[in-house]
Fold:
Amino acid sequence: MTAIKAMRGQPQPASTRARLTARAARLAASALLLASSGCSTLGSVGKTFFGGPPGGVEAQRLAGFIGAAVADEPRAALAGREILASGGTAADAAVAMGFMLGVTLPSRAGLGGGGACLAYNPSRTGPGAGSAEAILFTPVAGGAPGPTTDRPAAVPMVPRGLYALHVRYGKLPFDSLLAPAEQAARFGIPIPRALVQDLAVVAGPLLQDPNARAVFGPGGQPLQEGSTLQQPELAATIAALRREGVGDLYIGTLARRVADASALAGGGLQLGVMREALPRSAAPITLNFERDRVAFLPPPADGGLAAAAAFESLQAGGSVGTAGARAAAIASRWRRVGGDPLAVLASGGEGGSLPTLPASTGWLALDRDGNAVACTVTMDNLFGTGRIAPGTGLLLASAPNPAPLLSAALAWNPNLRGFRAAAVGTGQEGAPLATAVAMNNALHSANALPVPVPSPGRADAIACSRYLPDSNESCSWAVDPRTPGLAAGGN
Structure:
């Protein structure tokens, strides 16, 4: 590892850079695997790899079945599909989709937010071999109280979380996965319908911030369908992450710029908090379904715990209403008493209620080898604090109060080492039930999303009824029909 760091300042041939990048990724994955007992911090490896400059290799386009990419915003799904077609893994596609959503749907998936991912690796080697693993980068309050901190911000966890996912499961150079989002921000895109819908909800208070108004409401009126969304300052920030490495946002020059800018926007981000806010790997909550295993996000992404409770209720013959009530009760109990998630899941979860919860969004990726990723993120409010850190293009997420119910699930067969299904649920308090119903329906059907999930929940899903990689012709993918998202994949 020391030798790699010593060579970083010298120009290297492309072949050498490719070998160094691959070796660094293997070393990082190995170190993280050794550190991952139950629920572990990615800190020691993060300080080595979260700031390193990128390498470069040339991707080759694949023929035939490439997998699928599903997101609540079409350009993100297409970005993921392009990465899959270029030979990227599901994690590579998920990273590209996450950064693209930071440009196209910053109301819910801005780079200033936080979230969690589930990843499944069907191989016999590498991180999480033959099983599922959670990467948790849930929202962290980063604002210090004070006379100028009127809207405390959350630490921008998404870049660090997606980098951790890539270190564990990616193959293509990380910098190449940021390029589509950077270009979309720099040159502009027709504003997505999903973003227009969110703008309509909060345009009044959002456009009071001059920096947000310059992006989302030039001329004083919110952008409408057909308008161009252009974010040159955000493009410059993504370019800095691409050139200098993600660590620059937490311990480098970019970190200081963001902290200073957040103070001007009333967010009060503190450098020490940003530096120490690290993603974690964790064992998911895993339940049995016939011969398969179904993994749910673990706390602090407690929407996964609630989804597991709803899924258990459905498997026991309970109605959708009963499953939804149990999900809410379990989530409420966890937030009151904490403790062992499995013990909470086994409890009655009686009493309690949930407050009004923040919005979220999610996305899914599946590659031809059966690797799969399900991610969900939040800004803790629509458009977070409603303020952009001046000069950075970063929309600041709100400090979590209350935290959202982040919910996703993955299913596989441990004997066949085959992917079976993935689902991600959104819709505030309806997210856990949406995830549970979508997963239950996928496991009982040949289709990914045979019927819509109950409102207010929304769900996206991918399913392979006869498992992948053995039977790619059995795979299907679907976005919730009530959203303007896209499910893209195939040949």
